[in-house]
Amino acid sequence: MKCPFCSCADTQVVDSRVSEEGDTIRRRRRCTACDRRFTTYERVDLMMPSIVKRNGTRVDFDPAKLHGSMALALRKRPVSATALDAAVARIQERLMTSGRREVPSDHVGELVMSELRQLDPVAYVRFASVYRSFEDLREFVQAIDEFRRADDADDPA
Asked: What is the recorded function of this protein according to its Swiss-Prot or TrEMBL entry (predicted)?
C-alpha cells in the first residue's frame, strides 16, 4: 500500500479490525519512510456484468429491476417472498460466477424463465408472454405445451 503522504511503497500494517457488520476490514498502517500513520478499509468488490440489451445498448445490472419483473409475474400467485428472493439470488450468483463482463439480456431472460418454471407455471407463462412478445393465443398454447413437455421430462414415470 502506497503512503498517501510521501508516496513510499513500503508500509506496515499496525492493527487490523473487522467492522461490526463483518463486511469490511479496517487496517491501521504506518509508513516506514516518513513514519506517518493512515487508515485503509478493505471490502469485497463484486463486479456484476453489464447487460447488453437487444438494441445493443449496455446498462448496469439492476437487481431491483430483476426482482420487480419477477414479482410482477408472480403477482397473486402462491409463492413466498423468501422463494422469490432466493430465485433472484441464484440468478445473481450465476451471473457473477459466469466470469463474463457483459451478458446479453436474452441470457438473463432465459435465467428468469428457468427460475419461474420451477416456482410457478402461471408466472412462467406470464413472463414468457411478455419476454417473447406473444401476439396470439397460439403462442400461449405453445408455451404451455413447452412447459408440459419439460415437466414430463423431469417426472420419471
From this structure: Negatively regulates transcription of bacterial ribonucleotide reductase nrd genes and operons by binding to NrdR-boxes.
Pair 73, 121: CB distance under 8 Å: no
Contact 114, 124 (CB under 8 A): no
- 14: burial class by Cβ within 10 Å (0-12, 13-18, 19+)? exposed
DSSP per position, 77-113: SS--HHHHHHHHHHHHHHHHHT--SEEEHHHHHHHHH
d(CA 17, CA 146): 54
> Do residues 39 and 27 touch, judged by C-beta distance below 8 A?
yes
Q: What is the pLDDT of residue 136?
A: 74
Query: Quick count: other Cβ atoms within 10 Å of Cβ 6?
Result: 11
pLDDT tens digits, residue range 5-19?
999 999 999 999 998
Q: What is the pTM of this model?
A: 0.63
Distance CA 3, CA 75 (A): 54
Residue 153 pLDDT class (50, 70, 90 cuts): low
